[in-house]
Amino acid sequence: MHRAKYESGGAQLLLVLWSTLTATVAGSKLRHDSVAQRRAVPWKLLSEEKPVQIPAPFDYVRASSVDNALALLDRHGAESRVVAGGHSLLPMMKLRLARPDWLIDINDLYELDYLLVDGPVLRIGAMTRHTTLLQSGDVRRLFPIICDAERVIADPIVRNRGTIGGSLCQADPAEDLSTVCHVLEAVAVVRGPAGERMLSMAEFHRGPYETAVAQNELLIEVRVPIRAGSSSAYEKVERRVGDWAVAAAGASVTLGADGTISEVAVGLTAVGLERNVTEVEAVLVGQTPDETLFVEAGRLAALACDPLADQRGPIDYKRHLADELTRRVLRVACSRAAASVSDITI
Amino acid sequence: MTILEDRPSNPAAGDHDRPIGHGRMQRKEDPRFVRGKGRYVDDIVLPGMLHGAILRAPVAHARLVSIDTTEALAHPKVLAVITGTDLQALGLAWAPTLSMDVQAVLVTDKVRFQGQEVAFVVAEDRYAARDALELIQVEYDVLPPVVDARKAMDPGAPVIRDDLEGRTDNHIFDWEAGDKAETDAVFASADVVVKQEIVYPRVHPAPMETCGAVADFDPIDGRLTLYETTQAPHAHRTLFAMVSGIPEHKIRVVSPDIGGGFGNKVGIYPGYILAVVGSIVTGKPVKWVEDRSENLMSTSFARDYIMQGEIAATKDGKILALRTNVLADHGAFNATAQPTKYPAGFFHIFTGSYDLAAAHCTVTGVYTNKAPGGVAYACSFRVTEAVYLVERMVDILARKLDMDPAELRLKNFIKKEQFPYANKTGWEYDSGDYEPTMRLSMKIAGYDELRREQKEKRERGELMGIGISFFTETVGAGPRKDMDILGLGMADGAELRIHPTGKAVVRISVQSQGQGHETTFAQIVAEEIGIPPEDIDVVHGDTDQTPFGLGTYGSRSTPVSGAAVALVARKVREKARFIAAAMLETRPEDLEWAKGRWFVKGDPRVGKTMAEIAMGAHGTVALPEGIDGNLDAEVTYDPPNLTFPFGAYICVVDIDPGTGHVTVRRFIAVDDCGTRINPMIIEGQIHGGLTDGVGMALMEIIEFDDEGNCLGGSFMDYLIPTAMEVPDWETGFTVTPSPHHPIGAKGVGESATVGSPPAVVNAVVDALAPFGVVHMDMPCTPARVWEAMQGRTRPPV
Predict the structure, then answer these.
(1) Which pLDDT tens digit goes with each residue over B364-381?
(2) Shortest CB distance from B126 goes to which of A31, A54, A320?
(3) What residues contact residue A23 under an 8 Å CB cut-off, 6+ apart?
(4) Given A9, A35, A312, which is nearest B124 (Cβ)?
(5) All structural domains of chain A
(6) Prediction ipTM score
(7) Is A257 an 8 Å CB contact of chain B?
(8) What is the pTM of this model?
(9) Cβ contact B130:B75 at 8 Å
């Protein structure tokens, strides 16, 4: 039946097609001169050679300093977004799910790219790239949880570009460093027109994709307290390298001189818990680490979380992972802490 | 052309031992690709070129109420906005598919899948075209969608194709192969029968380069030049002539470098047609290139077979018969690409590598509110589904009989002396010698040692699995008496010219998407006429410059065009004999051929090289009567049969019992594709296909929610494997030449994609044996594996 539609036209169809469409198609306008009149915008001309992806229109400015970035945020207002590594924002823009009017690029702010052991605190500049964290000997020694997490954050290309500040401010529920910073009781240093604010992770991280950083503020530093006799671990389950976590868990443990747990924190990723699993503290603190305790902690973690079913798995599987991974990270963190305690005694 | 000698020798690639003909050599096309100098459709920039973008439907099933394009047309950079109504007035709103159905170019009446083409904007640049899409106002009246193929034939299911006259349901076709009565009789008297529903979920070929076109219609001479991402330029030219009314001699289709096809670039997509319409409307070249989401959501998917498998055997493990009923989800339009007679492709080779007493299959195709397609992703026309079915069923039988799966396979293989072997569904397997291939694979794997290791690990509660797959493919479609696409017989042409200085150009109809045709076909010619491969240019992908042929898919390039090229070279060689005889003033029958040279029998010092003969052909020597003054030839090759490559794959996996995460620890692939033209290229094809297989087995799936929303519309959701998910491949080979192919070669491009998924799944199921798991469907994601461990295996759709 349908084939007749094409056969009927034959060779004449060409002429019909050309003349009819030219004349009438949706009132199409033929403005042959307009191509030549196009404004010479360099990046658009480039795009003709190598078109890549297609975000909605936006303007772009590079900040030259933190103060300049703050001024730009203030000037361009609510529809401006800061771009650091860009590995969350740019994919959203390319799909036109995010459509800021202004992009304020802070990649020139080398003043925010540092790792400093400053007395009892590790100071991490907000523009520190994932790969810097992954490769740092200080980080590995003091906070193995960061290395564990960084190793499973996306892939080397993303890690070369993505930053700790960007990760924390994106506050994706499947984002690893948020959990890590919660577990390490890190402090976020946020600067705005009124000066600097110091926020605990509980204050900083308000929920999925939401932080306490105001539109005209910038996260500039993360401070992680260094504790003697402490160590930590992180483990993630993902369908494939670079996918969002199905679930992950992190733990930090401090052992006293007698080998008992003096401080502990357990956090979960991607299972609907935006805080540490504080329920485990009462069970673990003051106890000598053993498997029975880890099992109980795992059970409590599974109860505390509130996962959603999605393509990554059903709710009971994710609860099971909260349990399983909590046990695993506590096991590793305790054994690492014990090793570091024995290092000190030797 | 970069000369191979200019490059440092690479011992790993083995090109220190550079061949004159067949053998391991680096690919001639690689220097441009590794420098980033490939020229793809999106690299083409023509003077005054405009850009098109497609507005796509946000819902799966909806009546189109109205489209308002006023605002979009008001955009200062927009030149045209084309809707279905515009096309309808010209009879162009619908185009024929490769399966004798029709597909909407732009929606006129009803949206039938999410992502379907609704309107086409032509603008001065790509950004403006995209911006203007958002200015088109469309009103939809949303209808309940048909998402689950199992419910497509329910009474009362919404009728998707109400455009087809008299259509009252979503049924497309019923097809069967084999003898039902005979099969049922064997089943009735068998000692052991096992049944299993096996789902091969919808996946997507996801080539790195998405689909696109640059259409350049010249209003003065009425010529259309269409640069297109196509695996089959000649077939596309004919189809465009049929659809558009532009006469075929006025159409030139150019397929430049293609960044992966895997069957995704066989069909004609609305975007190509719209680019042509856009160019005719504006009188300027129009480029349309889809983005990743458009590719994943609207272009040809693969598989989507729900198979009810049954296998019958004696209690001591002689497999007697196989039967299956398949429900095939073809999406909203029947747009699969396969030979006309075979609506389920070559699925009826599901008897696999085994000598059966009987076999029968039925396949029912249905419409659903999903993107059309089905035959893609290196499937060899549905041999993928067939191999997966039989190789899973054999493993399930092995478990039932408590037999080692390797032993069960060895016991039931078609024997060497049975070839050529007529199976029970109408195929004649050309050649095979399965046992040595299987044994070699087991030897490389250290099979017995692996089983011992597995036993020890099971005692400790560790989950290790060993999976075997032994596949037989049918590739190289095909004999034109049996096989055509829309009436075009599946034979291929080839032309060869030897220039006076002895350099050659061979013109072929098939189009490489990464298979290395520029190297392989030069090597085939080199082997026959003794000119080194680097002196032979392979011309392809341009219908004005190459002879007619059906294109590259279904692993048919080497079986069909490879044969054509070998034969055309032999034709030139024979012609050269006459010219050499004239030059040497002797009789042709007194000459003898050694690689590259005709010489006088008994006096090897007196002879002429191919280059000398070429100069002679174009020179002043008096030529014998009937011999033209050139050294050119052409042939069209109609294959007498398909070729039947095979292979033995063994996969070893470890599963984390706490998380269900599967790690592919080892993968051993022993392939037999007959004569091996360039082993390095074959290994590359195998490596890629195995990676595909691991991807499908562990993570790839295009899912839909209840509303028909595609859940795999980006690489954030549609997972493809990386180097982190695959092991170092361990490959081996045996050589059983095809008896009917001029050089004994069989196709190999899809072998690993076809053969590897069952090996991985068999390994996962084997690892899960302590949990009583007999079968689990792909993808074996951590969650699905964990659910299987809880006794909750479930189909993915």
Answers:
(1) 999 999 999 999 999 999
(2) A54
(3) none
(4) A35
(5) 1-52 (no CATH), 112-225 (3.30.465.10), 242-338 (3.30.390.50)
(6) 0.93
(7) no
(8) 0.93
(9) no
